[in-house]
Amino acid sequence: MQSTENFFIRRGNKNRARLIVIAIFVLIISFLGGILIGKLAICDEKKCETITPVINDASIKEADPHISNEIISGINSENIRQYLRDLTELPHLAGTDADYRQAKELTDFWKAEGLDETFLTPYDILLSYPNNEDEDKMNRLFIYDDSNTTVWQSELREPILHPSENKSNVVPPFNAFSAPGDISSDELIYVNYGRDEDFKWLLQNRSVSVENKIVLARYGKIFRGDKVYQAERYKAKGIIIYSDPADYDDGDTSHVYPDDWWLPDTGVQRGTVYRGKGDPLTQGYPSTDTAFRLSQDDPSLPLAKIPVHPIGYGVAAKLIRRLRMRISTKNKRRTTYNAFGIIRGAVEPDRYVLLGNHRDAWVFGATDPSSGTAIMKEISRVMGNMVKSGRWRPRRSIIFCSWGAEEYGLLGSTEWIEATPLMYATALSATKKVRNPDPADVSAGIATVYDKWFKSFPNDQNSRPKIGSMGSGSDYASFIQQVGLPCLDFSYTYDETKYPIPSYPLYHSKYETFYSVDALIDRGFHVHKAVGQTWAEAARNLADAMIIPFDVKDYANELDSLVNILLDEYGELMQNNGINLDHIRSAAANFSNTVTAFVTSIKNEDKNDPYAIRRINDQLMQLDRAFIDPNGLPNRPLVRHLLFADSSLNAYAGSSFPGLVDSLFEIDKAVDKEASWNIVKKHYSAIVFAIGAASSSLRDTSSFMNKNELHQTNIV
Ligand SMILES: *[C@@H]1O[C@H](CO)[C@@H](O)[C@H](O)[C@H]1NC(C)=O
Ligand SMILES: *[C@@H]1O[C@H](CO)[C@@H](O)[C@H](O)[C@H]1NC(C)=O
Ligand SMILES: *[C@@H]1O[C@H](CO)[C@@H](O)[C@H](O)[C@H]1NC(C)=O
Ligand SMILES: *[C@@H]1O[C@H](CO)[C@@H](O)[C@H](O)[C@H]1NC(C)=O
User: Fold this and answer.
1) pLDDT tens profile 558-574
2) Does 369 sit behind a cis peptide bond, omega within 30 degrees of 0 on the bond before it?
3) Which of these, 35, 376, 415, 651, could form a disulfide with 473 (CB 3.0-4.6 Å)?
């Protein structure tokens, strides 16, 4: 199929959820991961003794240049295909036995393939499940006539369209964390995408109130949880969300799965409507044995207050007045597991490069997430085997991570390719080393993944490919937003200029099967292989390079552009309300100068001095942390990165200075203008301070006691 072979990596339109065919990520971390992923002891004391890092030749040696090619050429598409087949044999919803078995199998696999250490960490968390046994209670929609006779009722399950879907334990369509309820409404009101502007338009221009009514919204444009939130704000009593053919099909509904990759009329997108982060009962902390838990009935939990239900477009066409929703979805505490596999670093075992993706799926999850897990298995096999045979050991530790319960919003959700600025260089150099998987492109001279990416999505200056900024959408959200770790997220997506659709059509439906990937999306698994090669090379480079391959100039450029966007959009308004714009301009200019000096200092540094190498690497790793505000963004204490976070107005979008932009949004309509402006001013000063702290983190350490700089010491 031409469609999906088409493309890689893009910057998302801010208002759109994008497809991932594969969402996976890599990041680098020193000693901070504990709070997120529980205890991450890299080795017990006994084992560490034998590999205590010593200052020796290895610590001042550049990486072996041959390793890169060996790893890239070791990645095998047929292996990935087999792993995917195994992973998608059965449904593996979070908190089920199948999910645990997959975690266990992964750690067994890692051990067998040569990784040094593996472990599973359990978390007892609040999840949500529909009734899947009692047909009189299962989620269902009914239509009544005027005499209250049932004239139509919805199917309880998506029908089987391909024999491979004929498995037990397929969870029926539901929206996780819906409120249970049995409600009726004489009217069903169509609210388009369910955005604030859609409800506003109905109310103001059409005088239609949704109060005490059931509403019908289509998927797309914003996160489904925000549709529910808006429906609640406008006092609807229930919401049904459907996949419209205009968004999930190309207009011709005759060629659909199992013949094509388009969504059939019976396909239903499952998904969480939880708007918080982490376990709802222990937000901000790990759900371990000792954790304090809120009560499940606590009204402060950010859970849906009204029943929500997803449907396909076949059903949506039938819905008319006199509707009843019977929703029995319930929240339940269950145990889920994170699985880890470690390759210990030879020189800096206390520095970690994490490769991760989530493991749990709504049903078979052949694209989301198992394509990523299959690729990760292949990378761990190649790297593990090289370690086992004594051929290679990376300078820093590499940790493979498989998260549980991401689909419920406990870690995030999914998207296109995004990176924090320090990872740009790694993304660019890795894609240059990997061959374009499309033979037609290669014969047309578009030889590498980089070439294709550049051709499809050039940046505004046409000087290199465009790289997306980090929204909230995926597994990496907590790493960047809570602790400030540089992240890189890979995906291979369809040609979005040709198909302006919100996600790949089969997204979160039962039809996301191995068959759909094998026969319709990536025949031969060439795209999967290219993603694996790119991901492996990026990880190798981060783990192996003597000086971590972060380009601080990219950070300065990105900061300048964020400042420009802010000032273009809100500069005048801010100035008119007493904000001195020179503060941020001057801080950004200082940062830029510090960066230039730092780059020169790296060049001049004595590369035979292991302490100098260590110092540079430490400074590089600390830079992103300078942008973490311990108090969090206004009204969002758990979102702490001042530059890269989601907008609170749309959980799928990223925005510049998200705390500022959110606070400035509709500030003219604020009831207490002075209080609102004070929030903006306080946050603005925190940003100016953080930029100064970022400069401090790169300053010349030989004069770090310089009095003038002391006040800007980063406290994070
Ligand atoms: C139908 O049911 C509704 C709600 O239960 C009730 O108010 C109404 O009187 C019933 N109508 C008839 C014709 O029975
Ligand atoms: C599913 O499998 C069962 C038992 O193997 C079989 O009886 C049934 O016909 C199958 N259903 C479909 C739709 O293939
Ligand atoms: C809705 O009403 C507002 C205010 O009366 C008007 O400005 C706007 O153009 C209307 N929108 C549409 C889509 O008609
Ligand atoms: C930028 O650097 C100059 C010179 O060191 C200093 O006077 C000024 O306060 C700095 N600006 C900010 C916002 O930190």
Assistant:
1) 999 999 989 988 999 99
2) yes
3) 415
